[in-house]
Design brief:
By secondary structure, the protein is α/β, with parallel strands linked by helices. It contains 9 helices and 8 strands. The protein has an 8-stranded mixed β-sheet, with helices on both faces.
Protein backbone atom coordinates (compact mmCIF):
# COMPACT_ATOMS: atom_id res chain seq x y z
CA UNK A 1 0.00 0.00 0.00
CA UNK A 2 1.42 3.36 -1.04
CA UNK A 3 1.91 6.12 1.50
CA UNK A 4 -0.76 8.24 -0.19
CA UNK A 5 -3.40 5.48 -0.04
CA UNK A 6 -2.48 4.77 3.56
CA UNK A 7 -2.97 8.44 4.50
CA UNK A 8 -6.36 8.52 2.74
CA UNK A 9 -7.40 5.33 4.54
CA UNK A 10 -6.39 6.79 7.91
CA UNK A 11 -8.21 10.04 7.13
CA UNK A 12 -11.48 8.34 6.27
CA UNK A 13 -11.14 5.99 9.24
CA UNK A 14 -10.88 9.01 11.53
CA UNK A 15 -13.93 10.62 9.87
CA UNK A 16 -15.95 7.42 10.32
CA UNK A 17 -14.84 7.12 13.94
CA UNK A 18 -15.86 10.72 14.66
CA UNK A 19 -19.23 10.17 12.95
CA UNK A 20 -19.91 7.00 14.94
CA UNK A 21 -18.83 8.71 18.17
CA UNK A 22 -21.20 11.64 17.60
CA UNK A 23 -23.97 9.21 16.66
CA UNK A 24 -23.43 7.34 19.93
CA UNK A 25 -23.46 10.60 21.91
CA UNK A 26 -26.74 11.64 20.24
CA UNK A 27 -28.31 8.28 21.03
CA UNK A 28 -27.33 8.06 24.69
CA UNK A 29 -27.89 11.75 25.51
CA UNK A 30 -30.96 12.36 23.35
CA UNK A 31 -33.37 12.86 26.24
CA UNK A 32 -31.05 15.40 27.82
CA UNK A 33 -31.09 17.23 24.48
CA UNK A 34 -34.88 17.03 24.23
CA UNK A 35 -36.05 17.82 27.76
CA UNK A 36 -34.84 20.92 29.65
CA UNK A 37 -36.66 21.14 33.00
CA UNK A 38 -34.16 23.59 34.51
CA UNK A 39 -34.35 26.23 31.78
CA UNK A 40 -35.85 29.50 32.99
CA UNK A 41 -36.96 32.29 30.65
CA UNK A 42 -39.61 34.20 32.61
CA UNK A 43 -38.42 34.38 36.21
CA UNK A 44 -39.76 37.89 36.88
CA UNK A 45 -43.41 37.32 35.94
CA UNK A 46 -45.93 37.60 38.78
CA UNK A 47 -49.26 35.78 38.95
CA UNK A 48 -52.29 38.02 38.61
CA UNK A 49 -54.76 35.16 38.17
CA UNK A 50 -55.82 33.09 41.18
CA UNK A 51 -54.56 29.49 41.16
CA UNK A 52 -54.75 26.50 43.47
CA UNK A 53 -51.73 24.21 43.64
CA UNK A 54 -52.91 20.60 43.33
CA UNK A 55 -51.33 17.16 43.11
CA UNK A 56 -52.22 14.65 40.39
CA UNK A 57 -51.27 10.98 40.69
CA UNK A 58 -50.32 9.03 37.56
CA UNK A 59 -51.00 5.36 36.89
CA UNK A 60 -47.34 4.63 37.72
CA UNK A 61 -47.72 6.40 41.09
CA UNK A 62 -45.95 9.68 40.44
CA UNK A 63 -47.32 12.80 42.08
CA UNK A 64 -47.39 15.75 39.69
CA UNK A 65 -47.75 19.42 40.54
CA UNK A 66 -50.44 21.34 38.69
CA UNK A 67 -52.00 24.79 38.92
CA UNK A 68 -55.78 24.90 38.84
CA UNK A 69 -58.05 27.89 38.26
CA UNK A 70 -61.80 27.45 38.51
CA UNK A 71 -64.15 30.14 37.29
CA UNK A 72 -67.36 28.23 36.49
CA UNK A 73 -66.94 24.49 36.10
CA UNK A 74 -70.47 23.95 34.78
CA UNK A 75 -70.95 26.80 32.31
CA UNK A 76 -67.36 27.44 31.19
CA UNK A 77 -64.90 25.37 29.21
CA UNK A 78 -61.79 24.02 30.95
CA UNK A 79 -58.35 24.17 29.35
CA UNK A 80 -55.86 21.41 30.08
CA UNK A 81 -52.58 23.19 29.37
CA UNK A 82 -49.67 20.91 28.35
CA UNK A 83 -46.43 22.89 28.34
CA UNK A 84 -43.30 22.56 26.25
CA UNK A 85 -39.93 20.89 26.76
CA UNK A 86 -38.30 23.58 28.89
CA UNK A 87 -38.83 25.33 32.18
CA UNK A 88 -41.25 25.23 35.07
CA UNK A 89 -44.87 26.24 35.52
CA UNK A 90 -43.64 29.73 36.45
CA UNK A 91 -42.36 30.08 32.88
CA UNK A 92 -46.02 30.12 31.71
CA UNK A 93 -47.25 32.84 34.06
CA UNK A 94 -47.18 35.44 31.29
CA UNK A 95 -49.61 33.23 29.35
CA UNK A 96 -52.06 32.13 32.01
CA UNK A 97 -52.39 35.68 33.36
CA UNK A 98 -54.15 36.43 30.09
CA UNK A 99 -56.64 33.63 30.68
CA UNK A 100 -58.28 35.86 33.29
CA UNK A 101 -59.83 37.84 30.42
CA UNK A 102 -61.25 34.67 28.86
CA UNK A 103 -64.23 32.87 30.35
CA UNK A 104 -62.44 29.58 31.11
CA UNK A 105 -61.16 27.33 33.87
CA UNK A 106 -57.69 25.88 33.42
CA UNK A 107 -55.38 23.17 34.69
CA UNK A 108 -51.68 23.78 34.00
CA UNK A 109 -49.83 20.48 34.40
CA UNK A 110 -46.13 20.04 35.19
CA UNK A 111 -44.54 17.00 33.54
CA UNK A 112 -42.65 14.30 35.40
CA UNK A 113 -39.13 15.58 36.06
CA UNK A 114 -40.30 19.22 35.80
CA UNK A 115 -41.18 21.79 38.49
CA UNK A 116 -39.79 19.58 41.24
CA UNK A 117 -41.75 16.47 40.20
CA UNK A 118 -40.06 13.10 40.49
CA UNK A 119 -39.49 10.84 37.49
CA UNK A 120 -37.75 11.14 34.15
CA UNK A 121 -39.54 12.61 31.11
CA UNK A 122 -40.12 10.37 28.11
CA UNK A 123 -42.83 10.01 25.49
CA UNK A 124 -44.89 7.27 27.11
CA UNK A 125 -44.49 8.83 30.54
CA UNK A 126 -45.80 12.19 29.37
CA UNK A 127 -48.80 10.48 27.80
CA UNK A 128 -49.51 8.95 31.23
CA UNK A 129 -49.16 12.38 32.86
CA UNK A 130 -51.70 13.97 30.52
CA UNK A 131 -54.17 11.10 30.90
CA UNK A 132 -53.89 11.42 34.68
CA UNK A 133 -54.76 15.12 34.37
CA UNK A 134 -57.84 14.26 32.30
CA UNK A 135 -58.88 11.74 34.93
CA UNK A 136 -58.41 14.37 37.65
CA UNK A 137 -60.62 16.84 35.78
CA UNK A 138 -63.33 14.23 35.33
CA UNK A 139 -63.31 13.57 39.07
CA UNK A 140 -63.91 17.32 39.50
CA UNK A 141 -67.02 16.91 37.35
CA UNK A 142 -65.67 18.26 34.06
CA UNK A 143 -67.15 16.43 31.08
CA UNK A 144 -65.22 15.61 27.88
CA UNK A 145 -67.32 18.04 25.87
CA UNK A 146 -66.16 20.88 28.15
CA UNK A 147 -62.42 20.09 27.99
CA UNK A 148 -60.07 21.96 25.65
CA UNK A 149 -56.69 20.31 25.16
CA UNK A 150 -54.01 23.00 24.78
CA UNK A 151 -50.51 21.93 23.73
CA UNK A 152 -47.49 24.24 23.64
CA UNK A 153 -44.47 23.20 21.53
CA UNK A 154 -43.52 19.72 22.81
CA UNK A 155 -46.90 19.64 24.52
CA UNK A 156 -48.56 19.59 21.09
CA UNK A 157 -47.20 16.07 20.60
CA UNK A 158 -48.94 14.93 23.79
CA UNK A 159 -52.10 16.92 23.00
CA UNK A 160 -52.39 15.27 19.59
CA UNK A 161 -51.93 11.82 21.13
CA UNK A 162 -54.59 12.13 23.84
CA UNK A 163 -57.12 14.00 21.67
CA UNK A 164 -57.43 11.17 19.15
CA UNK A 165 -60.95 9.75 18.75
CA UNK A 166 -62.27 11.70 21.74
CA UNK A 167 -65.22 14.02 22.15
CA UNK A 168 -63.33 16.98 23.62
CA UNK A 169 -64.66 20.50 23.10
CA UNK A 170 -61.58 21.56 21.17
CA UNK A 171 -57.83 21.33 20.65
CA UNK A 172 -55.31 24.19 20.53
CA UNK A 173 -51.79 23.63 19.21
CA UNK A 174 -49.24 26.41 19.76
CA UNK A 175 -45.97 26.21 17.77
CA UNK A 176 -46.51 22.54 16.87
CA UNK A 177 -44.13 20.16 15.12
CA UNK A 178 -45.11 17.40 12.69
CA UNK A 179 -43.01 14.73 14.37
CA UNK A 180 -39.85 14.61 16.43
CA UNK A 181 -38.34 12.56 13.60
CA UNK A 182 -38.77 15.43 11.15
CA UNK A 183 -37.75 18.05 13.73
CA UNK A 184 -34.62 16.10 14.67
CA UNK A 185 -33.72 15.38 11.06
CA UNK A 186 -33.89 19.07 10.22
CA UNK A 187 -31.35 19.82 12.98
CA UNK A 188 -29.11 16.78 12.42
CA UNK A 189 -29.59 15.94 8.72
CA UNK A 190 -26.56 13.67 8.36
CA UNK A 191 -27.57 11.31 11.18
CA UNK A 192 -30.15 8.46 11.04
CA UNK A 193 -32.57 10.19 13.42
CA UNK A 194 -35.48 7.89 12.59
CA UNK A 195 -33.44 4.90 13.79
CA UNK A 196 -31.85 6.61 16.79
CA UNK A 197 -34.88 8.39 18.20
CA UNK A 198 -36.66 6.96 21.24
CA UNK A 199 -39.39 9.60 21.62
CA UNK A 200 -40.97 10.14 18.21
CA UNK A 201 -44.19 12.11 18.90
CA UNK A 202 -45.63 11.51 15.43
CA UNK A 203 -48.40 14.12 15.37
CA UNK A 204 -48.60 14.12 11.58
CA UNK A 205 -49.81 10.50 11.70
CA UNK A 206 -52.36 11.19 14.46
CA UNK A 207 -53.96 14.53 13.67
CA UNK A 208 -56.46 12.98 11.24
CA UNK A 209 -57.85 11.06 14.22
CA UNK A 210 -58.81 14.27 16.00
CA UNK A 211 -62.52 14.93 15.51
CA UNK A 212 -62.74 18.01 17.75
CA UNK A 213 -62.52 21.57 16.39
CA UNK A 214 -58.86 22.62 16.27
CA UNK A 215 -56.95 25.91 16.39
CA UNK A 216 -53.33 25.92 15.25
CA UNK A 217 -51.15 28.91 16.16
CA UNK A 218 -47.63 29.33 14.78
CA UNK A 219 -45.36 32.30 14.19
CA UNK A 220 -43.88 32.48 10.71
CA UNK A 221 -40.52 33.56 12.15
CA UNK A 222 -40.20 30.52 14.42
CA UNK A 223 -36.49 29.56 14.52
CA UNK A 224 -36.94 26.46 16.70
CA UNK A 225 -39.85 24.64 15.08
CA UNK A 226 -40.15 25.68 11.40
CA UNK A 227 -43.43 27.35 10.51
CA UNK A 228 -43.92 24.86 7.68
CA UNK A 229 -44.57 22.16 10.29
CA UNK A 230 -47.48 24.04 11.85
CA UNK A 231 -48.85 24.81 8.40
CA UNK A 232 -48.57 21.14 7.39
CA UNK A 233 -50.47 20.03 10.47
CA UNK A 234 -53.15 22.60 9.69
CA UNK A 235 -53.48 21.19 6.18
CA UNK A 236 -53.75 17.64 7.56
CA UNK A 237 -56.32 18.54 10.24
CA UNK A 238 -60.02 17.86 9.88
CA UNK A 239 -62.65 20.57 9.71
CA UNK A 240 -63.65 22.60 11.59
CA UNK A 241 -60.17 24.07 11.85
CA UNK A 242 -58.83 27.54 12.52
CA UNK A 243 -55.43 29.18 12.28
CA UNK A 244 -53.50 32.07 13.76
CA UNK A 245 -50.26 32.58 11.81
CA UNK A 246 -48.68 35.95 12.71
CA UNK A 247 -46.02 36.94 10.22
CA UNK A 248 -43.34 38.23 12.63
CA UNK A 249 -43.88 36.03 15.69
CA UNK A 250 -41.24 33.55 16.91
CA UNK A 251 -41.45 30.20 18.73
CA UNK A 252 -42.33 31.76 22.09
CA UNK A 253 -45.46 33.39 20.77
CA UNK A 254 -46.36 36.84 22.01
CA UNK A 255 -49.59 36.75 23.98
CA UNK A 256 -50.77 40.05 22.56
CA UNK A 257 -54.24 41.34 21.79
CA UNK A 258 -54.44 39.56 18.44
CA UNK A 259 -53.53 36.16 19.89
CA UNK A 260 -55.93 36.55 22.82
CA UNK A 261 -58.68 37.55 20.41
CA UNK A 262 -58.01 34.43 18.33
CA UNK A 263 -58.19 32.25 21.44
CA UNK A 264 -61.36 33.95 22.63
CA UNK A 265 -63.04 33.66 19.26
CA UNK A 266 -62.18 29.97 19.01
CA UNK A 267 -63.39 29.20 22.54
CA UNK A 268 -66.66 31.07 21.99
CA UNK A 269 -67.22 29.08 18.78
CA UNK A 270 -67.25 25.88 20.87
CA UNK A 271 -70.36 26.87 22.85
Amino acid sequence: MSKKIKMITIFFSIIILIYLSITAILYFSQRNLLYHPSENNYSDDQLTVTIEKVKITTEDNLELLAWYHEKDIINSKTILYLHGNAGSLENRIHKINNFEDININFLLLAWRGFSGNKGQPNEQGLYKDAKAAIKWLKKKGVKDQNIIIYGESLGTGIATEIAQNKNYAGVILESPFTSMIEAGSSKYPIFPIKILLKDKYESDKKIKNIKSPILIMHGEEDRIVPFRMGKKLYELANEPKYSYFPKYDDHMMEFNKDLINSLNKFIKSLN
